[in-house]
Write a structure and sequence with these properties.
By secondary structure, this protein is α+β, with helices and mostly antiparallel strands. The chain has two domains: about 1-40, no CATH class; about 40-100. The chain is about 45% helix and about 25% strand. The chain has helices at about 55-65, 70-100, 105-110; strands spanning about 1-10, 15-25, 25-35. The chain has a three-stranded antiparallel beta sheet, with no helix packed on it. The longest helix has 30 residues, at about 70-100. The N and C termini lie far apart (about 70 Å).
């Protein structure tokens, strides 16, 4: 049974430490070091997605053309998509309101 699990970023490496109580008075401490891209310290949240090959190729071409990383291009596209979703949502609300017979106030009167 693992009593403690800890991950630390050390420059370009990630250290993973497992502390396991094996017997009374005997504790096994296992240190693993991962090299390369495994350790990217950041305060931002991460998501992991699986892409179809065709979609990956398209994103890669866009990223290469823009000279940006796949991550930054993906974030940009997600933001744009969320803005579009928000626009569509508020557009539906506006359409419903326009369909109702109510007294309307002009823009200039509202902002006086």
């Amino acid at each position: 049974m693992v009593n403690r699990y800890e991950e630390k970023c050390l420059d370009e490496r990630k250290e993973i430490v497992f502390t396991i109580a094996v017997d009374i008075g005997v504790t096994l401490v296992l240190h693993l070091y991962l090299e390369g891209d495994e350790c990217m310290p950041t305060t931002k949240q991460r998501i992991y997605i699986t892409l179809e090959d065709e979609l990956f190729v398209i994103l890669k071409k866009i990223a290469d053309k823009a000279k940006q990383s796949l991550s930054s291009i993906s974030v940009e596209m997600i933001k744009k998509s969320l803005e579009r979703e928000e626009d569509m949502y508020f557009s539906e609300i506006a359409d419903r309101r326009l369909g109702q017979k109510q007294k309307r106030i002009t823009h200039s009167k509202v902002w006086k």
